[in-house]
Design brief:
By secondary structure, the chain is mainly alpha-helical. The protein has a domain at 8-127: Tetrahydropterin Synthase, Chain A (2-Layer Sandwich). The chain is built from ten helices and four strands. Strands 1-4 form a two-stranded antiparallel sheet. The longest helix is centred in the middle third of the chain and has 192 residues, at 129-320. Residues 43-143 form the Band domain. Keywords: Cell membrane, Lipoprotein, Membrane. Belongs to the band 7/mec-2 family. Flotillin subfamily. It comes from Triticum turgidum subsp. durum.
């Protein structure tokens, strides 16, 4: 694919094999030739003489480098600069194949071919007219013939060179094996010498270590003997001192135990006294709480009895009045002095004002005065006084007397 991302087919023929001759007689060129042959021998040994793997490897290198180079050029540059393109491909492929010991003997890039659907070269051929197209066909056929003939010739030459390289490789391998065995023998000899020297050093060190161990054992035994002697001398002193210290310690311990027991006994007595005080205080508080509880229980019982008595009283009064709730209510109000309290409150409310005051009398005459001591006349006077009184209460408070008692007078007339 070109730089314009136009795909095309690039037929090419490469003749590739191992490098069998140096470029010159210079030492560097000969050394380079030896390195190339060694790389090729390693490649063949690695692939187990399988030429198909070698072909696949070379093909992959050629295709990869060609694609990279084609992507940097336009179609016109590739078409017009075929020779330059071929040289660049040759250089890039040769650089990659050198690491495998391979050399490009010939590289023939054939005519570019269109990919189906992308007829760039077809249009280009029409533009260069039919003659140029015929000439291109001839060139392609000739190039194909030369390529095939050259490929056959190179194939035979490659096989010959490969056989020669294989023989030289075997000789080189035998030489390297001999050299390797010499080096291995030298290394073994050096190892044996080293082991012998190490053994001598170890023997000398072992003797020195053993002498040191023996000397240490002698010194340890001397130290043990001195230690036993010192122990024997110090044992008697230590025994006497120990007995004395034990007696002193026992006496001190006995005195401390007695002091501790006395202090403990005192603390126990103090704790018992505090406990007794706490028990007494707790008992006193409990008795006080019990008394309060008993008083509250009695108070509740008295309240319950009073309530029960009131309930029975109200029930008996209601039964006596024939179940008349209004009559019972009015009676209770009169009995509790509610009307009197109402009159007192109203009088206090109008104190300092100018209220409407009604004055009335029983209308008695001289004959009545003569009979004032009569009880019937007193009752009659009370009944005469009630209507004006109730009328005044009604005017002041808006409350009406009960229906069973009386009705208010109309236009100041008493009923």
């Amino acid at each position: 694919m070109s730089a314009e991302k136009l795909p095309f087919i690039l037929p090419a023929v490469f003749t590739i094999g191992p490098k069998i001759s140096a470029t010159s007689n210079e030492v560097a060129d000969k050394r380079d030739l030896d390195e190339q042959l060694l790389l090729y021998a390693k490649l063949i040994a690695l692939l187990h003489h399988n030429t198909s793997h070698v072909h696949d490897l070379v093909k992959g290198v050629i295709e990869g480098e060609t694609r990279v180079l084609a992507a940097e050029l336009t179609m016109e540059e590739i078409f017009k600069g075929t020779k330059t393109f071929k040289e660049k491909v040759f250089d890039m492929v040769q650089l990659e194949l050198k690491q495998f010991g391979l050399f490009i003997y010939n590289a023939n890039v054939k005519q570019l071919v269109d990919v189906p659907g992308h007829e760039y070269f077809s249009y280009l051929g029409q533009r260069t007219q039919q003659d140029a197209a015929n000439q291109a066909k001839v060139d392609v056929a000739e190039a194909r013939m030369k390529g095939e003939v050259g490929a056959k010739e190179r194939e035979g030459l490659t096989r010959q060179n490969a056989a020669k390289v294989d023989a030289e490789t075997k000789v080189l391998s035998v030489r390297q094996m001999g050299q390797g065995q010499k080096e291995e023998l030298a290394m073994k000899k050096a190892g044996w010498d080293k082991q012998a020297k190490v053994a001598e050093v170890e023997v000398a060190k072992a003797v020195a270590i053993r002498e040191a161990e023996l000397q240490m054992e002698v010194e340890i035994k001397n130290a043990m003997r001195q230690t036993e002697k010192l122990k024997a001398e110090q044992l008697s002193k230590a025994t006497v001192q120990y007995d004395t210290q034990v007696q002193d310690s026992n006496a001190l311990l006995y005195s401390r135990q007695k002091a501790a027991e006395a202090a403990l006994f005192e603390q126990m007595r103090t704790a018992e006294a505090r406990k007794a005080q706490a028990d007494a205080k707790f008992f006193e508080q409990k008795m006080a709480e019990d008394a309060k509880l008993y008083a509250k229980q009695k108070e509740a019982e008295s309240v319950a009895l009073v309530g029960k008595a009131k309930t029975e009283y109200v029930a008996s009064m209601l039964q006596a009045l024939g179940g008349n709730y209004h009559a019972l209510r009015d009676y209770l109000m009169i009995d509790s002095g509610m009307y009197t309290e109402m009159a007192r409150i109203n009088a206090g409310a109008v104190n300092g004002m100018q209220p409407k005051i009604s004055i009335w009398s029983n209308g008695g005459d001289a004959g009545g005065e003569a009979a004032a001591g009569s009880a019937l006349q007193q009752v009659a006077g009370v009944y005469k006084m009630l209507p004006p009184l109730l009328s005044t209460v009604h005017e002041q408070t808006g409350m009406s007397p009960p229906a069973w008692m009386c009705t208010l007078p109309k236009d100041g007339a008493a009923n």
